[in-house]
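Tokens help. Our protein:
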Amino acid sequence: MAEVFVTVVYIALLLIYAFINTTSVEGQKLDVTYWCNRIAMLASSQFPIVTALGTKNNLVSLVTGISYDRLNYIHRMMARTCFMLLCIHAVGEVISSPYFHLSGASLRAGIIAMAAFLVIIIVSLRPVRTGAYEVFFYIHFLGIGIFLVGGYYHTKDAYGSYWIWPSFVIWAFDRFIRMIRLVVFNHSYFGFKSGTGTMDATTELLSENVVRLRLRRPPHFHWCPGQTAYLIMPSVSTLPFEAHPFTIASFDSSFPSTAETEDQSGSGENHGTQVLGSSTPFWKELVFLINVHGGFTKKLKEVAAAKGQAKVFVDGPYGPSSDLSSYDTSIFVAGGSGISYTLPVFLSVIESVRKGKSSCKRVVFVWSVRRAEHVQWIDEALIKAVQLTPPSLTVSIRIFDTGALSMSQSTEEDSSRSVPTEKISTPEQDAANGSLISSKLLLLRGVKMENGRANLDALLKEEISMASGSMSVSVCGSQGIARAVRHALRFPVSGPSSILSGGPSVTLHVESFGYA
């Protein structure tokens, strides 16, 4: 609703302004030529803002704290509104000058710019962005250059180019900042011996559609749970400067170094990386769980199948990080590789409670997987997380194997989104079935694995009925999972009446899949 409200208000303000003071210098009211040129100038005045909102390092994010990916919706909405205004300008020109010809360089530049803008609008539609991101990337990059250059020469004679050239400056500034960040965080490629080998990434094919990428981060590279980074892999991508965004699935924890210090002093109860064991990468290294689609990720899958290494430039981190230290209860809901977002935030809550920085009393971790063996992606991290949980914090881990649905359950699911969970597997049953799941994880207190889809409606309502104070619900997965969580938390479950009757105040955070 917030997005709809912003869109309607923005379009309304532009249209209102377009019809104010439309009398020409000759005194003619709503003169078509004067009005359509004014519409074009109004659209041009939005270009610097549209450009700024499309960059990773922009002043709006710096001032407001809103991440670039959240602002990307406004970027697209403003661009499409400007396209609408420019179409009105073009129609007005045709009406006022029906016998125009293409001999003028300014007119040709304007037509080329509008054609490029139309192509950009088409490839920026969600189905194209999600289904063919690389096509969108190439065409968007090239099309923006053609549009701005064409727009500059089209408006130069009308003294409107002063709205165009700032877009080049904003874009160049963003590229300059990103280049500085690349040099700083990938210094091993630029002659600094201290960083040699730091950005050599190892790849592992976890399943048919998921690749795990691991690399040792530079000592000065830090990130917050839930943030993203752009990966540039010249040996894998089609073009050497391609940058692909992925969520960092690991947590930049101080635990290993702290534990090592305690161990050296002889007074610590932990033993550094020996305690963390094979889960250490999820606590300190850069780890990415990458869904395989086509193009870049398909080539990366081929590298992972050969268990190869790849050189990686890391540009980031970007995006906000949720601070859950003030919540009494935290619930995490993920589907498949959505665990990339919920796992590091989950680990950060446990560490905050250990350090006394959070008063959280209960954490619920819900993960839906298509196959039971997918739990192996993060089982060591979950085991260590439970083992490191302080007594004051209750942890409940519920894993749902959706691939174990029976035929009858599948039929019932077609008619209802919410299917009650009927069957709960035990470690003994998993071993009997030849499951690859670590029985050590399932033997831990508070860990449960169930067959079938999660009944998120019943699960969340049950947690709300038991909770008090403040509660955060973080979800990352498919649109269906996000809708199910929103449906479960709708009024009056988390409304004022629930709070007045002693229920928790609920804050929902939805992290989107794919390229927003």
User: Anything to note?
Assistant: Residues 179 and 473 are 36 Å apart (CA to CA). The chain has 21 helices and 14 strands. The mean pLDDT is 79.
